[in-house]
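TICKET: design request
STATUS: open
ATTACHED STRUCTURE:
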C-alpha cells in the first residue's frame, strides 16, 4: 500500500464514521519513508462502545470494503448484528480438542460440509417445519466480523441468524443465546462435537514479576502433592474465573483439618496448662469434652475452618500489604459488589480483623459457585453463573484466593529432601 492509497482510505473511513456518528482516534503516521497504520474505532455495542484497532494495510482494506457502519457488536461475544440486513453473525469455536483424531476438516464434514477444504464454505441452511421462524445457517466467518471482534480463533465458522424482526441489542443477544444453546447442544448429543460461541474475553490484568537480580536457586521447600495438583489446575483455568476460583479454594480446603485441629489443640492445651485444672474434677474434664464434642464434623462450619487456616498461615500485615499494593484493588474490595459478595474488605476497619473479612468474602463467593438457592446452611444463596457479568468481574477475587492459596501451601511445606540423594563431601 502506497502513501496515497493509505491516506485516501483513512480519509474515506473517517468521513464515513462522522456520517454514521461513530467516534474514532487516528494516530497513524504516513510519510514517504514509512506508513504506520494506527486507527481506533469506537464501535457501538448495545449502550456502550468497544474499541476496534486497525493496525495494518489488510485491516484498512477490509474495513474500507465493508459496510462497517451497519454493524453493532454484541456484548460478551465475538458477534455482531447488522440491523439493515437483519443478520446476526456469531463466531464459533472448539473450546477443547474433541478428539486427537478429529481435525477441523473432519469436524466440518460431520457438520455436513461436503468439501471442508474450501476456503469459502457454502452455507448450510437448517430447515424448520415451523413457518415464520428466523433463518439459521452455518457458514464461513466474514472478514469484517472477524476484524471487528479481533477474533484469532482458527475454526473460522460462524452461526448466522436472519430475521427482519430483530430491533434491539438485547433482542439480538436473546435470539443468539436461545438458538445457539439449542443447536449446539443438539450437535453435541447427536454428533459428539463440542462447539460453542466464541466469547469476548475480559481483559486480565497481569501482576508484574517481583523485581530480583538473583539467579534461580535450588528448591528448598517441598509442597504437598494434592494441594499442588489443585493449584496447577487453577493456574491452567485462565479465562474460566469460576473454575479458577474454586480450584484455588480447594487447594486451601485441603489443609482445613490440619489447621482447625491445631487451633483445637491450642484451646485444649490452654485448659490443661491452667494450674487450677484438676483431672479428678468433673467440671474441668467436661470443659474439654465440650470443646471436642462441639468440634465434631457436624459442629464446625467450613467458614470457621477457613478462618482458622488463614489465621495460622497469613499475618494481618501480609493481607493488608496485598490489598493496598494497588489502588483499584482497595476500591474494589471496599465497595459492595452486587451479585458477587456483600462482604467487603476494608483495611481501615478496626471492628473486624482482616482474617475474618477475607474469609467471609472468599467463603460467600465459594457458596455462590457451588450451591443452588435454598441449599446452603446460611439460607438462600444467589447463583454465580459462568459467562455472567458478575463472573467477568471476579479478577480481584481470583487474585485474592490465589494469594491465600500460595501462602497456605508455603506455610504447610516441609524441607525439600530427595529420597535417594547422595551425600557429597
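STATUS: resolved
RESOLUTION: sequence designed for all positions
ATTACHED SEQUENCE:
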Amino acid at each position: 500500500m502506497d502513501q496515497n492509497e493509505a491516506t485516501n482510505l483513512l480519509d474515506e473511513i473517517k468521513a464515513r464514521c462522522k456520517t454514521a456518528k461513530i467516534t474514532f482516534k487516528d494516530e497513524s503516521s504516513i510519510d514517504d519513508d514509512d506508513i504506520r497504520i494506527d486507527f481506533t474505532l469506537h464501535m457501538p455495542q448495545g449502550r456502550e462502545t468497544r474499541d476496534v484497532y486497525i493496525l495494518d494495510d489488510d485491516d484498512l482494506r477490509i474495513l474500507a470494503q465493508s459496510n462497517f457502519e451497519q454493524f453493532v457488536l454484541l456484548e460478551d461475544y465475538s458477534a455482531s448484528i447488522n440491523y439493515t440486513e437483519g443478520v446476526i453473525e456469531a463466531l464459533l469455536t472448539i473450546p477443547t480438542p474433541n478428539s486427537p483424531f478429529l481435525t477441523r476438516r473432519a469436524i466440518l464434514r460431520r457438520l455436513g460440509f461436503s468439501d471442508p477444504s474450501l476456503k469459502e464454505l457454502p452455507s448450510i441452511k437448517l430447515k424448520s417445519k415451523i413457518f415464520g421462524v428466523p433463518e439459521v445457517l452455518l457458514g464461513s466467518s466474514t472478514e469484517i466480523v472477524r476484524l471487528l471482534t479481533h477474533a484469532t480463533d482458527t475454526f473460522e465458522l460462524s452461526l448466522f441468524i436472519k430475521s427482519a424482526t430483530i430491533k434491539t441489542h438485547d433482542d439480538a443477544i436473546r435470539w443468539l443465546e436461545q438458538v445457539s444453546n439449542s443447536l449446539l447442544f443438539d450437535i453435541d448429543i447427536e454428533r459428539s462435537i463440542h462447539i460453542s460461541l466464541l466469547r469476548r474475553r475480559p481483559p486480565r490484568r497481569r501482576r508484574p514479576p517481583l523485581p530480583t537480580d538473583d539467579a534461580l536457586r535450588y528448591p528448598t521447600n517441598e509442597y504437598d502433592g494434592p494441594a499442588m495438583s489443585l493449584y496447577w489446575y487453577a493456574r491452567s483455568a485462565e479465562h474460566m474465573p469460576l473454575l479458577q476460583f474454586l480450584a484455588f479454594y480447594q487447594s486451601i480446603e485441603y489443609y482445613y483439618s490440619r489447621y482447625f485441629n491445631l487451633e483445637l489443640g491450642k484451646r485444649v492445651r490452654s485448659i490443661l496448662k491452667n494450674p487450677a485444672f484438676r483431672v479428678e474434677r468433673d467440671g474441668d474434664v467436661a470443659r474439654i469434652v465440650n470443646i471436642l464434642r462441639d468440634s465434631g464434623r457436624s459442629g464446625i462450619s467450613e467458614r470457621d475452618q477457613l478462618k482458622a487456616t488463614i489465621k495460622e498461615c497469613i499475618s494481618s500485615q501480609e493481607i493488608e500489604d496485598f490489598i493496598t499494593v494497588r489502588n483499584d484493588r482497595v476500591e474494589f474490595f471496599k465497595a459492595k459488589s452486587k451479585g458477587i459478595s456483600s462482604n467487603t474488605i476494608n483495611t481501615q476497619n478496626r471492628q473486624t480483623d482482616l482474617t475474618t473479612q477475607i474469609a467471609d468474602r472468599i467463603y460467600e463467593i465459594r457458596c455462590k459457585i457451588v450451591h443452588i438457592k435454598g441449599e446452603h446452611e446460611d439460607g438462600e444463596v444467589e447463583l454465580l453463573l459462568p459467562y455472567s457479568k458478575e463472573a467477568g468481574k471476579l479478577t480481584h477475587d481470583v487474585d485474592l484466593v490465589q494469594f491465600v492459596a500460595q501462602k497456605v501451601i508455603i506455610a504447610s511445606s516441609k524441607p525439600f529432601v530427595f529420597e535417594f540423594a547422595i551425600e557429597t563431601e
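CLOSING REMARK: Residues 125 and 137 are 4 Å apart (CA to CA). The chain has a mean pLDDT of 85.
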